Amino acid sequence: KPEATYMIWMNFSGYGISDEELNRKMVFEAGLGLNSGHVFGKEGECCMRMNLACPKSIVELAMQNLKKAFE
Q1: Phi, psi of 7 (to 5 degrees)
Q2: CA distances from 62 to 3, 34, 41, 49 (A)
Q3: Measured distance CA(4)–CA(1) in Å, rounded
Q4: I want to staple 29 with a disulfide (CB 3.0 to 4.6 A). Which of 15, 23, 34, 69 is the partner?
Q5: CA gap 62, 1 in Å, rounded
Q6: Distance (Å, rounded) from C-alpha 23 to C-alpha 29?
Q7: Are 37 and 46 in contact (CB under 8 A)?
Q8: What's the pLDDT band for 4 if we cut at 50, 70, 90?
Q9: Does residue 10 contact residue 50 with C-beta atoms inside 8 Å?
Q10: Between these two residues, 10 and 5, which has the higher pLDDT value?
């Protein structure tokens, strides 16, 4: 019986950037192709959805890239 999901939602509203800028930052600075939360409705604005159904090493690399992009 599943007790978890492989999708995470990350809230970037504290950075004060638009959804467009957030998506640009993900793609061009972090090198990540995540799902923009705004396509899921108003509640998803300034959020990104990430699929974790991959090896741990890939998730770790993605998190390192994400950290660098927002430093």
Answers
A1: -115, 135
A2: 24, 10, 25, 13
A3: 9
A4: 69
A5: 29
A6: 10
A7: yes
A8: confident
A9: yes
A10: 10
Measure the CA–CA gap between 18 and 39, rounded to whole angstroms.
14
Looking at residue 5, its pLDDT comes to: 78
- Residues in a beta bridge with 47: 11
pTM: 0.82
Place of tokens 């809230």: 11
Task: Tell me the pLDDT tens digit for each residue of 47-71.
Answer: 999 999 989 999 999 999 999 999 9
Distance (Å, rounded) from C-alpha 21 to C-alpha 5? 27
Tokens of 5: 């999901």
pLDDT tens per residue across span 21-46: 999 999 999 999 999 999 999 999 99
CA separation, residue 2 to residues 5, 33, 54, 55 (Å): 8, 26, 17, 19
- Residue type (1 letter), 63: M
